[in-house]
Amino acid sequence: MASKSHSNDEMDIRSLSSSRCHVHNTQYLHKVGVPPKRNLFREFTATVKETFFADDPLRPFRDQPSSQKLILGAQAIFPILEWGRSYSWRKFRGDIIAGLTIASLCIPQDIGYAKLANLDPQYGLYSSFIPPLVYAFMGSSRDIAIGPVAVVSLLLGTMLSSEIDPSKNAVEYRRLAFTATFFAGITQATLGFLRLGFLIDFLSHAAIVGFMGGAAVTIALQQLKGLLGIKEFTKKPDIVSVMHSVWGNVHHGWNWQTILIGVIFLSFLLFAKYIGKRNRKFFWVPSIAPLISVVLSTFFVYVTHAEKKGVQIVRNIEKGINPSSVNQIYFSGEYLLKGLKIGAVAGMIALMEAVAIGRTFASMKDYQIDGNKEMVALGVMNVVGSMTSCYVATGSFSRSAVNFMAGCETAVSNIIMSCVVFLTLEFITPLFKYTPNAVLAAIIISAVVGLFDVQAAILIWKIDKLDFVACLGAFLGVVFASVEIGLLVAVTISFAKILLQVTRPRTAILGKLPRSSVYRNIQQYPEAAKVPGILIVMVDSAIYFSNSNYVKERILRWLMDEEERVKAACQPTIQSLIVEMSPVTDIDTSGIHALEELHRSLQKKGVQFILANPGPVVIEKLYASNFENLIGEDKIFLTVADAVSSCAPKQLVEEV
Amino acid sequence: MASKSHSNDEMDIRSLSSSRCHVHNTQYLHKVGVPPKRNLFREFTATVKETFFADDPLRPFRDQPSSQKLILGAQAIFPILEWGRSYSWRKFRGDIIAGLTIASLCIPQDIGYAKLANLDPQYGLYSSFIPPLVYAFMGSSRDIAIGPVAVVSLLLGTMLSSEIDPSKNAVEYRRLAFTATFFAGITQATLGFLRLGFLIDFLSHAAIVGFMGGAAVTIALQQLKGLLGIKEFTKKPDIVSVMHSVWGNVHHGWNWQTILIGVIFLSFLLFAKYIGKRNRKFFWVPSIAPLISVVLSTFFVYVTHAEKKGVQIVRNIEKGINPSSVNQIYFSGEYLLKGLKIGAVAGMIALMEAVAIGRTFASMKDYQIDGNKEMVALGVMNVVGSMTSCYVATGSFSRSAVNFMAGCETAVSNIIMSCVVFLTLEFITPLFKYTPNAVLAAIIISAVVGLFDVQAAILIWKIDKLDFVACLGAFLGVVFASVEIGLLVAVTISFAKILLQVTRPRTAILGKLPRSSVYRNIQQYPEAAKVPGILIVMVDSAIYFSNSNYVKERILRWLMDEEERVKAACQPTIQSLIVEMSPVTDIDTSGIHALEELHRSLQKKGVQFILANPGPVVIEKLYASNFENLIGEDKIFLTVADAVSSCAPKQLVEEV
To answer: Transmembrane ranges (chains A, B) (predicted)?
Structure first.
């Protein structure tokens, strides 16, 4: 149905007439337009496109010769082919400095994080060698620093050890870890390939802040074992068990030499962090502080032989690069399904972290990241990693920030880091033998401090109380139960919020702003005045099955309240109800039923039912269901002002 | 923060100035209002109130003396105390006719439905005796007819028999049925008491239509057993198994005498239905046809002794009213949990049906139904029923419609029906001994025909294609798998639709309607013209974590497309982006982050970022997060027209 526009009429325009008090009651300049009908196939493809290809990935391919399409296709899979062509010496200078900086930061972190995942230290280093290389070829973020991260290591460690005890069955445990890594990669690549990337958007920012904060606390608490030199430590991750374990060991379990080393270096690291924070020029101070701590403490232990006084050391760290682990992955048996489950969860969390980092830095430098392509890159990277003795790697918040501040230009900084890790694996690992665990614990604590984002939590509290509940719920869930429970709480609250949003849309009463034809919420604009005899209600959401009954009943309740008020104040009774439909973006069959019922109720009361400004989708559906004939086509107006003057010109004139 | 209104300024009003080409560039009549800040407690209680007490149940209690409150409280629990006081002889006349009509309809239906639930026929009658009595005292609907219904009977029969074989362990099966009924009641009452009634709104109208249609087909197919006189019939409910069973028995299993009886009475019943439909005056014809069929066929079988020629008959039906079943309910053991599960599902479906009926007829007669109170009534009714040998009862679509058409006035018609069922149980049941099963099958088929609502499905197809997918999915799920699978499909698609809605909100480009200051979607209003140098985008939904990234990227893509178009057409470059926020009803932390990132991207491009008409909640949160300082408080306008004239007065003047 084409829009029957009255634009050719030589009529005064509505806004003008209302302000001059000339009310033309019967005709208005514009009618509510009915958009041209699309055929079913087009409507369907448009919906699919907006849902799955919102970023229009084929856009550059349009109108290109097929040879060019081939090149563009290769570049789409390997972005390095695109940015590599314009790579320059100047960019390399930035990348090499950044790469060396993140390498010095990642080596001690990797060793610590591997312990969080209950794996031998070299597996952390392995995961900083192969995955960054793969990512450099396939990833599209220029600033992300790839490698093992604290939260995923913790999550993996918790979930894996609930299946297999790592101290008793180290080999099987490791095999399950590779299996989980493999399926984490498959999950990530599949989500990206099926363009289901938007699924990770269902974890709200607030839930992530809480989850990360809780994970930071849990990780820091776990480090008390290394920092205090406690030998018999609980295996449960919750704060109650850990504190019980810590205080239970206070008389016999603590080792003062360990504590001394730990506290000294923790203070040093936190001080370095403080300096880096105060002056961004000194960002490199906290970046190299961990490596300095490792070197100093290792040398100290080696000289004093503190390991004989109960100071625990790394002791054994394999030399050489990643061995193959293809035949260690479980492709059958009971561990296949368990690996799949753990991998899927760990993969999603890793994805969430990487995509959040990628987006943050992309918006800082103003380039676009294709979320789905990014997921495929991360997925392939983890699949390759799982076959080369790596566990789940992703983008690290802290190292990516350092990478950015050190002036990285492209993913080449990841290649540089990878090379340094390679050299470390080949030549330096034996030197880590005497590194005390206390220093690793201190490094991890100082690294996860940044994940505990009080500022963000305060902002969330200020902006949205319900968001804060999600944040707090996720935090408490992680701290008092486990990362999995915390995650579950976060996801549940996030979903509940979405459901609440669609079940209970807001409604508001509109009033006329003095000396204008603009109608606005009277709560927001106290100067807005109600028009006598007319109630104007705005519905603030699509009307769907989940809220149609609520909307109907809420509008009737507004009407009832208003009728009571009017009666008490001896004002003219309500004769018309105008529903401002601008924010009603869509309506379904239940919604139309609700409007029909509303119309029936209003008819019984002798109140006119008028709609203002229904949008394209809504008007199409109202016509499809013949609703416009039910209430009368002349009861649908372009603006609230039109609707008001149609039903009560007298009163309007009185008021103006 | 109080709204700093400029309403006292002696300025020309915006709409006037634009039409007269006087563009006052620096000042506007009204600023965007910031609603007065509410304290946390008030905000919280307001949210809780809108979510759980949207219908304001305590409204009548306000400002009443406490003795009056007591009376009102009793009336709230037992509405009969309220409407009973104004009960009159005139009303009773309507009720008695309606009650007798639904009684004659329910007796044969009850016997058939009990068989659907794999229970002996008298249990159907029991369920039409006690529950309607309880409901009459506690329920608030005046038109609903209470008793066993086809869909719930089928659902219960399917789920119960997957736990216990009713032919082998009839006693245990029955006990589980009472247990499920008990927990169905508990579920219903709990949902109502906790005011969680809105949960049943999550099953969309479309999904219900499909589910009901599928259940109708499944039930009708099951009746082929009785109608064709097949002895060995499949126990699987899906269409493939049933048809296989029917055709496999064609040579030996069918009984021609049974078929004769069945087909004759089915034709009679359908013809009666047709007459009732053609002329609403004859609504009583289809209502008494079932009882007539039962009487005639029973007499016929008794006279001809057709039961000896293979015509299956009811054979045994217990005389007397409901025995107690309190001690038959499983309150411990493995069947406790199973009963709970089955009861919860059956209770929800029963609830859905009853509430839908209640709402439909309430809106026809224009009275209000309190959904939550209604649920408590239904719940208590089923708990009492489970202790008096009833299985799950609820409101029946077909009988409620008959009740309504027969002119019922109050729930007294249910009491009348209950009395008739009582007399039947006490005196007439032995007469049903020779009733052929084929007639019961015919009665059930003619009853469920109405559940298969093709008209509604066509309307759904016309209005919303995605709704139709939900409808079809639920239908096919029930027909080809089972009621449970169909229900699962319906719920899943309903949820997926909600999630899709919040993940992919619509965005649109606005243009100016000629000779007005109104800006509208250019797809809906092809006559609307873009303002040169300015892009106006409307976001059609709250901006939440689930869509914030999409919204940001979609707006940037609109901008990119527009920049390309403008370049190709040699028009002025885009210098301002106005985001029309009217439909943006809420924003959370993720949403504000997205706006900040959008602002940063636009700054890099040298494009101004302007907001028009943010609502009360949005503006409050923008202020809480200091966003208004980031983009500049003078970049937030009351209307799009204000925003446009602020950034391009020259062009506007040129155009007008």
So the answer is: 144-164, 176-194, 206-224, 254-275, 282-303, 342-362, 374-394, 414-432, 439-461, 473-496
- Enclosing H/E stretch for B539: strand B534-539
ipTM of model: 0.77
Say yes or no for a CB contact (<8 Å) between A527 and B5. Answer: yes
So what's the pLDDT on residue A55? 67
Q: Which helix (H) or strand (E) holds A536?
A: strand A534-539
Q: How far is B381 from chain A (nearest CA, A)?
A: 25
Q: Does B621 touch chain A (CB under 8 A)?
A: yes
Please list the ranges in chain A whose pLDDT falls under 70. 1-30, 35-38, 54-57, 648-656
Note the pLDDT tens digit of each residue in B332-388: 888 999 999 999 999 999 998 898 888 888 877 877 777 888 999 999 999 999 999
- Residue B615 contacts A where some CB pair is shorter than 8 Å: yes
Q: Using CB atoms and an 8 Å cut-off, which of residues 361-400 of chain A contact chain B?
A: 363-364, 366, 368, 371
At residue A10, the pLDDT reads 36
Q: Determine contact: B541 vs chain A, CB below 8 A.
A: yes
Q: What is the pLDDT of residue B340?
A: 94
Residues in chain A: 656
> What distance in Å separates the CA atoms of residue B46 and residue B60, rounded to the nearest whole number?
19
CA-nearest residue to B621 within chain A is A463
Give the tens place of pLDDT for each residue, A561-572: 899 889 998 888
Residues of chain B positioned with their CB less than 8 A from the CB of A523: 35, 616
Report CA-CA distances (Å) from A2 to A33, A508, B527, B597: 8, 32, 12, 39
Count CB-CB contacts under 10 A for residue B2.
10
CB proximity A563 to B under 8 Å: no
Of B373, B465, B509, B525, which to mutate for an interface test with A (greatest number of A Cβ within 10 Å)?
B525
Q: Does domain A504-655 have CATH number 3.30.420.140?
A: no
Between CA B483 and CA B470 the distance in angstroms is: 15
CA distance B352 to B378: 11
Note the CATH architecture for domain B15-23+505-655: 2-Layer Sandwich (3.30)
Domain limits of chain A?
A: 89-499, 504-655
Q: Is A5 on the interface with B (CB under 8 A)?
A: yes
Query: Residue B549: its chain A contacts at CB < 8 A?
Result: 201, 359, 371
Strands B507-512 and B519-521: antiparallel
Say if residue B407's pLDDT is above 80. Answer: yes
Tell me how far apart the alpha carbons of residues B122 and B115 are, in angstroms, rounded to a whole number.
10
Distance (Å, whole) CA B124 – CA B153: 10
Half-sphere exposure of B258 (CA within 13 A, CB side): 25
Q: What is the pTM of this model?
A: 0.76
CB spacing of A33 vs B583 below 8 angstroms: no
- Cross-chain residue pair B582–A585, CB shorter than 8 Å: no
Question: Which range is least confidently modeled, A300-309, B82-91, B229-238, B404-413?
Answer: B229-238
CB contact under 8 A, A600 and B460: no
The pLDDT tens digits of the residues spanning B214-261 come to: 989 998 998 888 888 887 788 788 888 888 888 888 777 788 889 999
Which of B205, B500, B526 lies at the smallest CB-CB distance from A590?
A: B205
Distances (CA, A) of A265 to A114, A310, A313, A429, B331: 20, 18, 15, 21, 61
Contact list, B521 vs chain A (CB under 8 Å): 35, 615-616
Q: Which residue on chain A is closest to B640 by alpha carbon?
A: A518
Using alpha carbons, list the distances in angstroms from residue B353 to A409, B102, B346, B400, B478: 62, 18, 11, 11, 17
Q: Alpha carbon B2 to chain centroid distance?
A: 42
Which has the closest alpha carbon to B289: B310, B311, B274?
A: B274
Beta-carbon contacts below 8 Å between A and B: 305
Residue B565 has pLDDT above 60, yes or no: yes
